[in-house]
Design a protein that fits this description.
Strand order of the largest sheet: 2-3-7-6
Strand content: 5-15%
CATH architecture of the largest domain: Up-down Bundle
Helix content: 40-55%
Number of strands: 7
Order of helices and strands: HHHHHHEEEHEEEEHHHHH
Number of domains: 3
CATH superfamily of the largest domain: Butyryl-CoA Dehydrogenase, subunit A, domain 3
CATH class of the largest domain: Mainly Alpha
Shape: globular
Structural class: alpha+beta
CATH topology of the largest domain: Butyryl-CoA Dehydrogenase, subunit A, domain 3
Number of helices: 12
Radius of gyration: 22 Å
Length: 408
């Protein structure tokens, strides 16, 4: 398999465009909305809805590099601010689920409003995690029962990124994971699209977080929440006697969402790590410190060695991310590569931002600089979309060809 890591002209144009957006639209308000958690960043949301989503290169430009451009966008905009990136009015993870497992009709119905000009900002979200079900998605207890031509959902979802906007603002939607048959285990897990404002879906509250504080992370309660039969992602054909066998892609289809979303999260991590590294290098240069890449190993200082290691970690994470994205573009299974890049990027960004704070000393730890914020923003990349440990387990299982029961 031959992979070129040289960006196409379309990808280069996309990178320049999104870097400009990050510099002009995000960095100026980054600290403000980190301090003012749960405040809607209205100027950013309105700008993105009116101009950002229709301006600049489109992800379909260029031969076969569309998903790589999505990852470039994530890296550049998270260099600006990861929390604001997650607050963009987009289909987000909910849209990834619809794209991965939805029918053509479902994609048109739920994703088209995000492509149309005009209207008001809307959000998409995905609700998986529950108080008793985190990394083990098969332990989900939220239920979905077929009642006539409707599914009735009951349960509680926590840590739902963009859940506030997606559940309350007309036009948005939440993709809810629920079981139609607890005895079927993973086979009973299905994905359902719940439009914003649906009776029975209630926003319970939002989380106070260590980082990505400009984003909203919601708790949602579903009580006898009814959605039409065809809101089951992947199929509207239901077998009355056994609703766990609906002809949809089921748990595998739902999990396929992560093959698309994990490279994006990895790209986000690379963006945060690069923000910290770029600032560190600028500060070292301002102080007259130059990293000597051509110095003999025995003469390299501890600081120079740290910087070189940070750069190597970042580049490795980026190349793994682009590999997973390239495979996605070409229709190749990328489950292993998606978990590899996510695991590597989560570790890399945590190390890079912590080291940047350390090397900058007391000022790095203070709020006078943005580095401490980037360190706080970094850690989530090691947690959501599958924790570091879960992704390492997936990598091991794929390489060794072990089922989940044999390697836990």
């Amino acid at each position: 398999m031959t992979i070129s890591f040289e960006p196409t002209e379309a990808s280069k144009a996309a990178r320049e465009h999104y870097r400009k957006v990050a510099e002009e639209q995000m960095r100026p308000v980054s600290r403000k909305y980190d301090d003012e958690e749960h405040t809607l960043p209205k100027e950013w949301v309105d700008w993105f809805w009116q101009e950002g989503r229709h301006g600049g290169p489109r992800p379909t430009d260029g031969p076969g590099d569309g998903f790589i451009q999505v990852c470039i966008q994530a890296e550049e905009l998270c260099w600006g601010d990861a929390g604001l990136y997650l607050r963009m009015p987009t289909p987000a993870l909910g849209g990834s689920a619809v794209s991965a497992a939805g029918t053509a009709e479902q994609k048109k119905k739920f994703l088209s409003p995000f492509r149309e000009k005009g209207g008001h900002p809307i959000w998409g979200a995905m609700a998986i995690t529950e108080p008793q079900a985190g990394s083990d998605s098969a332990a989900i207890e939220t239920t979905a029962e077929l009642d006539g031509d409707e599914w009735v959902l009951n349960g509680t979802k926590i840590f739902c990124t963009a859940g506030e906007g997606a559940s309350t603002v007309e036009g948005g939607f939440v993709v809810v994971w629920a079981t139609v048959d607890k005895s079927a285990g993973r086979g009973g897990i299905k994905s359902f699209v719940v439009p914003a404002g649906t009776p029975g879906m209630e926003l319970v509250g939002t989380e106070h977080k260590l980082g990505i504080r400009a984003s909203d992370t919601a708790t949602l309660r579903l009580e006898n929440c009814r959605v039409p039969q065809d809101h089951l992602l992947g199929s509207s054909a239901v077998k009355k006697k056994d609703p766990s066998k609906t002809g949809d892609k089921g748990f595998k289809g739902a999990m396929a969402t992560f093959d698309a979303s994990r490279p994006i999260v990895a790209a986000m991590a690379v963006g945060v790590g690069r923000a910290a590294l770029d600032f560190l290098l600028e500060e070292l240069e301002r102080q007259g410190v130059r990293v000597r890449y051509d110095a003999p190993p025995a003469e390299v200082t501890a600081l120079e060695r740290d910087v070189m290691e940070m750069e190597a970690e970042l580049q490795a994470a980026r190349l793994l991310t682009w590999r997973a994205a390239w495979m996605m573009n070409h229709g190749k299974p990328n489950n292993l590569e998606a978990s590899m890049c996510k695991a590597k990027a989560g570790l890399a960004v945590t190390k890079i931002t912590q080291k940047a704070v350390e090397l900058l000393g007391p000022l790095g730890y203070s709020k006078k600089l943005m580095v401490e914020k980037w360190m706080r923003d970094a850690k989530i990349n090691d947690i959501y979309e599958g924790t570091q440990q879960i992704n390492q387990l997936i990598v091991a299982r794929r390489i060794l060809d072990y089922p989940s029961a044999m390697l836990r």
